[in-house]
Automatic annotation (TrEMBL):
SUPFAM superfamilies attached to this UniProt entry: PLP-dependent transferases
Keyword Ribonucleoprotein annotated: no
Protein name, UniProt field: Aromatic amino acid beta-eliminating lyase/threonine aldolase domain-containing protein
Quaternary assembly: Homotetramer.
Single GO term (MF): lyase activity
InterPro entries attached to this UniProt entry: ArAA_b-elim_lyase/Thr_aldolase (IPR001597), PyrdxlP-dep_Trfase (IPR015424), PyrdxlP-dep_Trfase_major (IPR015421), PyrdxlP-dep_Trfase_small (IPR015422)
Pfam families: Beta_elim_lyase
């Protein structure tokens, strides 16, 4: 009954098989190998476009910080939700990688930036007023840190507003597959077609070992050389990148990443329904693979005594995360322990 995080799950067997297959012979270093170059076509098929460039890292924090640093100068700011991963879980990495860029934290319900709050922040931008830090980037997280999903329409609306003020738009897609499964949207619709300039596309939480892809769409491709330079300077230019690319190939083949995301979402739905049937209130509507339950101290103690693993969350809820390996029996065991 381990509901601690989807990063606690093992790698999918297909990923391990791909790594073993890649572990033969000699290959060029630093992304010039055959597997990394071949990955371009796979990504083009997934996102329905050839108008992109990409780079890979082993962690979501590195991907977010590198991506944002290419669009936010040291004297600029990034607009994001106050509960966004870049704000509360990355130890100042975006600020560090950008050389001093600032995060401007916005509020909004369910982990999403509020419409009015976004408009207010955009209206405050004044590059001629030297005393304030003007925003250069809008960052959206999908799924949000509260397990909710922005719809395609919401992403497109916010991106259009940001672009009108001259901002670039970044999406933290650490759980993009779960968001797509929740909204039944296509990758292209949720990203570049909706106005996303740079995407950090996460496969680690979905079933890889450590595989994050930074995608630069359209005009943002002009940042590719800067992205590579910053990756090198910060120690995120893996010499044996083929082993990250091999993971990506395995996850994207036959839409495995989406199938695994749907499995995790379905497990979370089963968990949420079971909790609510016992009268447990949920802090947020479960749209992806995370459930935030408002449990009493007695209920928490009872579940922990039964061996359940989960974490407390901001606002007094308990976060229970389902992964691609979460089985129905595991969910039912937790629900039985709660009932007992």
């Amino acid at each position: 009954m381990n509901f601690s995080s989807d990063t606690s799950a093992p790698a999918h067997p297909s990923v391990l098989e791909a790594l073993a297959a890649a572990n033969t012979g000699l290959e060029a270093s630093y992304g010039n190998d055959a597997i990394t170059l071949r990955l371009r076509q796979r990504l083009a098929d997934v996102f329905g476009t050839d108008d992109f460039d990409y780079w890979m890292t082993a962690s979501g924090t590195a991907s977010n910080a590198l991506a944002l640093s290419c669009f936010c100068p040291p004297t600029g700011a990034v607009l994001c939700h106050a509960g966004a991963h870049i704000a509360v879980d990355e130890r100042g990495a975006p600020e560090f990688f950008s050389g001093g860029g600032k995060l401007q934290l916005l509020r909004g319900p369910d982990g999403k930036i509020g419409s009015e709050q976004l408009d207010e922040a955009l209206a405050r931008i004044n590059h001629d007023f030297v005393h304030e830090t003007p925003a250069h980037v809008l960052s959206l997280t999908n799924l949000t840190e509260n397990g909710t999903a922005y719809t395609v329409a919401q992403v497109a609306d916010y991106a259009e507003r940001a672009h009108a003020k001259g901002l670039s738009v970044h999406m933290d897609g650490a759980r993009l597959g779960n968001a797509l499964a929740a909204t039944r949207a296509a990758p292209a619709e949720m990203t570049w077609k909706a106005g996303i300039d740079v995407l950090t596309f996460g496969l680690t939480k979905t079933g890889a070992i450590g595989c994050e892809i930074i995608l630069l769409f359209g005009k943002a491709r002009e940042k590719k050389r800067e992205l590579e330079a910053r990756a090198k300077r910060s120690g995120h230019m893996p010499p044996k990148m083929r082993f990250i690319a091999a993971q990506a190939e395995a996850m994207l083949k036959d839409d495995l990443w989406m199938k695994l995301a749907m499995q995790a979402n379905q497990a979370a739905r089963r968990l949420a329904d079971g909790l609510q049937s016992q009268g447990v209130e949920l802090a947020f509507a479960p749209e992806g693979n995370e459930v935030f339950a408002l449990l009493s101290d007695d209920q928490v103690a009872r579940l922990r005594a039964a061996g359940a693993v989960f974490y407390p969350w901001m606002g007094g809820s308990q976060r229970l995360v389902c992964s691609w390996t979460t089985q129905a029996e595991e969910v039912d065991a937790l629900l039985s322990a709660l009932k007992a």
